[in-house]
Amino acid sequence: MMYFIAYHLARVYFYLLYRFKVTGRENVPEKKVILCINHTQNLDPLMIAVALKRRQRPHFLAKHQIFKFKLFNGFLTACGAYPINREIVDLTAMKKTLTLLKEEKTVMMFPEGTRVSDEEMSQAKAGAGMFAFKSRAHIIPVYISPNKRLFGKVRIVFGAELPLPELTEKPTNQDYMAFATLVMERVFALGRDA
Known about the structure:
alpha/beta; 6 helices; Glycerol-3-phosphate (1)-acyltransferase
């Protein structure tokens, strides 16, 4: 209930203040999805959530420090956020992500691991690749334009599903990294082609 209130409030806010151009929404399956997105601003997860179909409630990791503010904590949780401590290997956050995917939910990930303000791809982290291999979820590359000025255009492009490579052995950290890099290359290709 709280999510749908937050969804509609965010939708009204964003559609009043920005000109959204969303393409490829039909590429997103209903269940067990990892959306791999370039990350340019704090508002990206909310903008992606608004661009999806309302019933497809996405979840996403957010740095644990922002959950210390109780009022903000409730809003973030309602929007599908859950905390990660990026200073350690956060097993709780990893288990939560895998549980959500096992429950066939939609999870947003930012494979670069932090905000990158320009159009250039930075080094992808292995995490997105690891979750992809362990969950066998649908992997959808998503591009969001970096320049989000008030009343300006925001482009969001949902790309075609990216299949996992077939491996003859158990995947390694190198395999995770290679797949995460491939995903981000596809994300930025969507931005160039849009």
